[in-house]
């Protein structure tokens, strides 16, 4: 950094080995302290902080006077000598804490208004203020560290792919609208009035065409766009590391990806134990209630249907007697100590996950039991429940009664909620694959089949006869990369047979005309010797969020949007002129 720069060193690199050297530093004034004849300044850049000392016995009168006038966030250039800090004045919290620079020359490069908030890491500043002045927020050491980490991790991925003969190929940002689950962002064409491009939700179709084109090993750090409701780990524009391989099996793809990820994470100081664990989709759902489980803590789901097959509690007994209905439970250890009113409020939480109510039993520390349903249970049923759920005083057992998937989802949601509410420890990072997702799920709103992953996913070959007989029972060649309870990436093998692709689209409700209108270019390409292929997409923003120890992807993005999709700094989205609309043949209704 110093070779073509106004400084000889950065503010984060000087050490005891530099003592005695003449150096030049540049950065922003962070803190300034006047100690009656001596002035100390903490100078900050993106790499760290160096303490400066202005001593009138070392610097001339003009330099010392300039030091008296400078204020926070002024950019300055200083020159001076690196010296050891006096005994007992080391700052062990700083990498540069053993030294300071005695300044002999200062140049004020610019001045600054008083910032709307202090440039500190541990201040309770409203996020909307931080986003309004994002260019100031980025100066905070934590934000600078996050951006540096993201850059390093992205480079490590590129390096890992490059050394394995992958080609980085850019795909268009203006393409055809092919809705893949979320709304497209549309871009009107000026040259073809009434026609629109779409910003890509992913390069999915294009990377398949690259495989048909013989690229064989492709990757791209791709910007993607989805016009959907936002939350703390989702943005309208996001970055994924997109991958595709041809002439491969599923194990080939997963094995290659594991090595790439292990290399990249190692550069971040995180070790992946290979091979990563693989959990089948239904095993993940039945055990953790979610297809992206955090296995660093327990509170697993238990099927207790058989315990209550002859129960006097009609809800449980009816479920036990009905095919496809289940009684499942989790044990939130420690929550049995909560007051009754606090436990009752959990019913509202369960409702968010689809429950119509929440049956529970609180096992108090004094040995008593609190529950509106326990009076219906026999001693044998309670004993069997205690044994199955490993009940101890202070535990709270919660139940869900529904079909398999819904019961899993209700308790999976409660498991995550209770882990946060109880502050359950989660040490280190947790990596695994979830594999063999269903090919389809039932869309209750549209009353039709929908793809679990996407319409181009390869079904399990030994289940093709189920396409007509029982499509919801079909599995697929799919694999999601799970990190710390988040879906960090996902992929699958692709259909490379045109006739099978036609059948899948037909099952999803596409008429031949609609299939050709939306995916005709892909269908045509599959008829020209498409090879077996499979791929993957890693959510770069989400992974960097987890590496940074944050709970919001805005903390690892330079210029993110708010939850309403607004950019507070630039005031986007904004209105455009009537002339601009007219140029693309649009008018507002």
Protein architecture, described:
The chain is of the alpha+beta class and 589 residues long. Among the domains are: 16-108, Nucleic acid-binding proteins (OB fold (Dihydrolipoamide Acetyltransferase, E2P)); 297-425, Gyrase A, domain 2 (2-Layer Sandwich). Helices cover 29% and strands 23% of the residues. It contains 17 helices and 22 strands. The protein has helices spanning 61-69, 127-132, 134-137, 141-162, 204-212, 250-267, 281-288, 314-321, 340-344, 346-352, 379-389, 404-421, 466-469, 498-507, 512-526, 540-547, 578-583; strands spanning 22-34, 39-45, 48-54, 75-84, 99-108, 167-168, 186-188, 196-198, 217-225, 237-246, 278-280, 302-303, 325-333, 359-363, 369-370, 395-403, 431-435, 440-443, 448-451, 478-483, 486-493, 533-539. It has an eight-stranded mixed sheet, sandwiched between helices. A five-stranded mixed barrel has the order 1-2-3-5-4. A five-stranded antiparallel sheet has the order 12-13-16-14-15. Helix 4 (141-162) crosses helix 16. The longest helix has 22 residues, at 141-162. The two termini are 54 Å apart. The model has no long low-confidence stretch (mean pLDDT 95). This is Aspartate--tRNA(Asp/Asn) ligase. Pfam families: GAD (PF02938), tRNA-synt_2 (PF00152), tRNA_anti-codon (PF01336). L-aspartate binds at residues 180, 226, 453, 494.
């Amino acid at each position: 950094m110093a070779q073509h720069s106004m400084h000889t060193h950065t503010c984060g690199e000087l050490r005891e080995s530099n003592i005695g050297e003449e150096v030049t530093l540049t950065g922003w004034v962070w803190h300034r302290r006047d100690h009656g004849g001596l002035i100390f300044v903490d100078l900050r850049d993106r790499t760290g902080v160096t303490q400066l000392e202005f001593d009138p016995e070392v610097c001339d009168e003009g330099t010392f006077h300039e030091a008296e006038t400078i204020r926070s966030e002024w950019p300055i250039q200083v020159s001076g000598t690196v010296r050891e800090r006096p005994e007992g004045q080391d700052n062990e919290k700083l990498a540069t804490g053993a030294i300071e620079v005695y300044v002999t020359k200062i140049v004020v490069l610019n001045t600054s208004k008083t910032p709307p908030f202090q440039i500190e890491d541990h201040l309770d500043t409203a996020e909307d203020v931080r986003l309004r002045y994002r260019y100031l927020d980025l100066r905070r050491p934590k934000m600078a560290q996050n951006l540096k980490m993201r850059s390093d991790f992205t480079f490590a991925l590129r390096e890992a792919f490059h050394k394995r003969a992958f080609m980085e190929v850019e795909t268009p940002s203006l393409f055809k609208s092919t809705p893949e689950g979320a709304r497209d962002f549309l871009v009107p064409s000026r040259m073809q009035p009434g026609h629109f491009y779409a910003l890509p939700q992913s390069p999915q179709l294009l990377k398949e065409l690259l495989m048909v084109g013989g690229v064989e090993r492709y990757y791209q750090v791709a910007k993607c766009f989805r016009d959907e409701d936002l939350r703390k780990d989702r943005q309208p524009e996001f970055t994924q590391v997109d991958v595709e391989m041809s002439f491969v099996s599923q194990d080939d793809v997963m094995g290659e990806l594991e090595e790439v990820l292990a290399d990249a994470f190692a550069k971040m100081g995180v070790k992946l134990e290979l091979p990563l664990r693989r959990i089948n989709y239904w095993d993940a759902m039945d055990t953790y209630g979610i297809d992206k489980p955090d296995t660093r803590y327990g509170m697993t789901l238990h099927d207790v249907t058989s315990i209550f097959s002859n129960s006097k509690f009609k809800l449980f007994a009816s479920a036990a007697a009905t095919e496809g209905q289940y009684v499942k439970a989790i044990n939130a250890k420690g929550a049995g100590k909560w007051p009754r009113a606090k436990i009752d409020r959990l019913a509202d939480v369960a409702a968010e996950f689809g429950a119509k109510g929440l049956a529970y039993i609180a096992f108090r520390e004094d040995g008593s039991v609190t529950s509106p349903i326990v009076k219906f249970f026999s001693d044998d049923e309670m004993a069997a429940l205690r044994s199955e759920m490993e009940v101890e005083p202070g535990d709270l057992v919660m139940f869900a009664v529904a079909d398999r998937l819904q019961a899993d989802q209700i308790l999976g949601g409660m498991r995550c909620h209770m882990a946060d509410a109880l502050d359950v420890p989660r040490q280190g990072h947790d990596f695994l694959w979830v594999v063999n997702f269903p090919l389809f799920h039932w869309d209750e709103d549209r009353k039709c089949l929908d793809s679990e992953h996407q319409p181009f996913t390869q079904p399990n070959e030994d289940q093709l006869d189920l396409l007509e007989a029982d499509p919801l029972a079909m599995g697929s060649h799919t694999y999601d990369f799970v990190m710390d309870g988040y879906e960090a990436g996902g992929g699958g093998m692709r259909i490379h047979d045109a006739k099978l692709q036609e059948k899948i689209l037909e099952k999803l409700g596409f008429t031949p005309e609609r299939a050709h209108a939306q995916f005709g270019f892909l269908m045509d390409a599959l008829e020209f010797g498409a090879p077996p292929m499979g791929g993957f997409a890693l959510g770069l923003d989400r992974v960097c969020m987890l590496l940074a120890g944050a709970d919001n992807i805005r903390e690892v993005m330079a210029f993110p949007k708010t939850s309403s999709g607004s950019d507070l700094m630039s005031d986007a989205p904004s209105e455009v002129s009537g002339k601009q609309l007219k140029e693309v043949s649009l008018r507002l209704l």
